[in-house]
Automatic annotation (TrEMBL), chain A:
This is Amino acid ABC transporter permease. Pfam families: BPD_transp_1. SUPFAM superfamilies: MetI-like. It is a multi-pass membrane protein. PANTHER family: ABC TRANSPORTER PERMEASE PROTEIN (PTHR30614:SF35), MEMBRANE COMPONENT OF AMINO ACID ABC TRANSPORTER (PTHR30614). Belongs to the binding-protein-dependent transport system permease family. HisMQ subfamily. Keywords: Cell membrane, Membrane, Transmembrane, Transmembrane helix, Transport. It comes from the Bacteria. It is found in: Cell inner membrane; Cell membrane. CDD domains: TM_PBP2. It comes from Azospirillum oleiclasticum.
Automatic annotation (TrEMBL), chain B:
The chain crosses the membrane at residues 20-43, 55-79, 85-105, 184-205. PROSITE patterns: ABC_TM1. Keywords: Cell membrane, Membrane, Transmembrane, Transmembrane helix, Transport. Pfam families: BPD_transp_1. It comes from the Bacteria. This is Amino acid ABC transporter permease.
Amino acid sequence: MAYSFDFPAVFDYTPVLVDGVVLTAALTVVSTVAGVSIGIAGAAARTSGVKALDTAVGVYVEVIRNTPFLVQLFFIFFGLPTLGIRLPEWQAAVLAMVVNLGAYSTEIIRAGIQATPRGLIEAGESLAMTRAEIFRHIVIKPAMKKIWPALSSQIVIVMLGSSVCSQIAAEELTFAANFIQSRNFRPFEVYFVVTALYLGLAVLLRWLLARFGNLVFARRAARA
Amino acid sequence: MPEFTTWDILYNLILAARWTVVLSILAFICGGIAGLLVLLGRVSPLPWLRRTMNLYIELFQGTPLLMQIFIVFFAFPLMGVETTAWTAAVVALTLFTSAYLAEIWRGCVESVPKGQWEASESLAMSFTEQMRYVILPQALRVAVPPTVGFSVQVIKGTAVTSIIGFVELTKAGTMITNATFQPFLVYGLVGLLYFALCYPLSVYAKRLERTLHVAR
């Protein structure tokens, strides 16, 4: 017997899907801002020349990059309450995403910082700039510009990875899909539609990040 | 209530980790073969084939692995094929791996100087001969470090298959947590085991990259 598809059965639940898209987008925005900030701080720490700081951040980066996001999420949501830290679903989801993106962006931004020509830093020093001033005005901007494409890809990967947050009942897009298919018993159609939504989100996010990069980095470079 | 020692927990997690390893190896090998085919299409002289393979890659790089697994898991029964979590996991991870490897390898193929293509073409080599004797051997050298690096992503990707009920390391962690009520310890150990699997590969990839740069 041939299977007859029933896509309208999915669109009966459009408000649920919209809520899911909104929460996935919100999770992504918050974790991008916080994660990239951690990345900049982490990269600064790793290139600071302070051995202990470099090692500590290095351990953080390697631990996160070599374990699955799902396990990090479970550890934060189910494991941390043992230490008395009990987070609601969406906070645990945000924390896991921030910690995850923070580690990856530390590594990406560090590569950008290390590509700064030595002469630029020496020029800053000869102008009696402090280390913080050199970092802020000379090092970080060109570094961010250089690694922006790589960082953008990582942000998209984190957005797509947020789908496993449904497993701790954070009510994002995949959670919406699970909810709908448990009501209409049309798993294939539901997941097909939601996959298309993720694809749309990924394309949109990539475009937005490229626009943002052009706006922020191109203009500053032109002015300098 | 039975008591579980830390050793009991670790022992059972290690047993389950075998399935993570088996699934990773299988997905990596099958995905590598499929990825090679996708790559050949992606750099072929036929525009329609290039576009199709590009679409394939974009599709898998633009959607969550979890959705890919769900779709495979629920699509098989629609085609009248009985499926288990194991087959769905292998098929989904193979497709996922093939798309990423094809894209990584495309970069390596494109790093081969254009003169090599032109020289081999002037020797009247066909596309397959060009790839086989001129381009791939040179691309292979550059391709090894990122390929080893990507194997870490495959191992981490297998964790997601726990969601459709395939019992590997993460699923075993959840099951053991439900029995022992020690999530901190269990997920800590699960993370440690993944780290033990992935970290050597990461280090190896980095070292390969370094020696390659020195050789150049």
